[in-house]
Amino acid sequence: MHALTRRAFFRNSGLALLALGVPPEFITRSLLAGTRGTERKKTLVCIFQRGAVDGLNMVVPFGEAAYYAQRRSIALPTPSSSDGGVIDLDGFFGLHPSLGPLHGLYTRNELAIVHAVGSPHPTRSHFDAQDFLETGTPGVKSTRDGWLNRVLVDTGCPDCSGRTLDDADAHAVDHAAGQVAIEDLDRFGVAGGTDASLEDAFARAYRTEGGDLVSSAAGDAFEAIRLLRGLDLARYRVAAGVEYPAGNFGRSLRQIAQLIKADVGVEIAFADLGGWDTHQGQGGLRGQLANRLTELARGIRALYDDLGDHMDDVVLVTMSEFGRTVAENGSGGTDHGHANCMMVLGGAVRGGQVLGDWPGLEREQLYQGRDLALTTDFRDVFAELVSRHLGADQLDRVFPGHIADPGRWRSILKS
């Protein structure tokens, strides 16, 4: 089996194999099964907040006095503030107002938050931390494949191989692609165009330096997209009243919804949203972070509402490589930190609560005297989701070196 690199599986702000991160043989098999009337498949949608979001201003511990002591200019007001404060969740935690579109899902018990979660590795390097999050092996730089790829192998894809179609990433993923990366469904004629133009695009993407076509990989990928084109995705219309945010992120989510609603057997989908590295001018109620959270919330809620009852079979999880310092810096921002928060949404979610053990923000409670301390390993969150939702049972292979102990899981999903 070919390995899967970080760039191949996670890098694109658009879609990995039509927004899916699924290999050609897998989606081809799923598509054929879908045409034969098989039952709807469970789907995991992953959203990467690339750049290290400030989880303390995303899900705010407004009941913690130390939060206000260390964030004099960027702290968000309490819910009772006359200036308009955070949205109260449980009397201690509150949502940033820019996440308001998601509050209704919390009150419907379809959104849960895991706080003080992240990687146990101490790195503050974006590159290393993203790599560890994507490979599922914190501290091990030699891991070549991603944990989601290993989930696909565990749940029925024994030969996940392919090549990327994204020119920017082609060299980086050579001989280690694991899927076809396509920016959107309109590209390469998936939602329109001719078979000839599609074949030509694949010929250019799959031709080797010697001029030979890698026929097996190209053939599998071409067949997968030919099948997708047969779904007439070009005529797709979003549900009434739904509006996705403009840009790559909104387009990615809309196209994920297209494929899930087509019941083609999508098991894993992935979307990427960057711009969270707020060292300067982060802002509080308004500003840089608030704008990013607005795009995130609008996109997630649009996807949720567009999918409708399909969300009974979908679990969506957000992730970021690490959090940010508790104290603001001299530039009105925050620096690289440690633990963070994750959101998990869907009909199967045991929502309406903030999960995890809160470590506190007093100086003696902080990691290395500066960061939110870790009380939940991100692998325990992912392990619960892929085990209870997708049916993965070889968790020692999905997360090598980590003991998948259900006793540490946060009971995010309904039993």
Structure characteristics:
three-stranded antiparallel sheet; 415 residues; 14 helices; seven-stranded mixed sheet
Describe the structure.
This protein has 415 residues and is α/β, with parallel strands linked by helices. The protein has helices spanning 6-11, 24-34, 55-58, 65-70, 103-107, 126-135, 147-154, 167-170, 195-206, 215-229, 248-261, 288-307, 378-388, 395-398, and strands at residues 15-16, 43-49, 59-60, 87-88, 94-95, 111-118, 181-182, 268-273, 314-319, 340-345, 353-355, 376-377. Strands 2, 6, 8, 9, 10, 11 and 12 form a 7-stranded mixed sheet that branches. A hairpin with a 5-residue loop joins strand 4 (87-88) and strand 5 (94-95). Helix 2 packs parallel to helix 10 (215-229) and helix 11 (248-261) packs parallel to helix 12. Residues 1-38 and 158-181 have low confidence and may be disordered.
Sequence-ordered SSE layout with sheet pairings:
Blueprint: H1 6-11, E1 15-16, H2 24-34, E2 43-49, H3 55-58, E3 59-60, H4 65-70, E4 87-88, E5 94-95, H5 103-107, E6 111-118, H6 126-135, H7 147-154, H8 167-170, E7 181-182, H9 195-206, H10 215-229, H11 248-261, E8 268-273, H12 288-307, E9 314-319, E10 340-345, E11 353-355, E12 376-377, H13 378-388, H14 395-398
Parallel strand pairs: 2-8, 2-9, 6-11, 6-12
Antiparallel strand pairs: 1-7, 3-5, 4-5, 6-10, 9-10
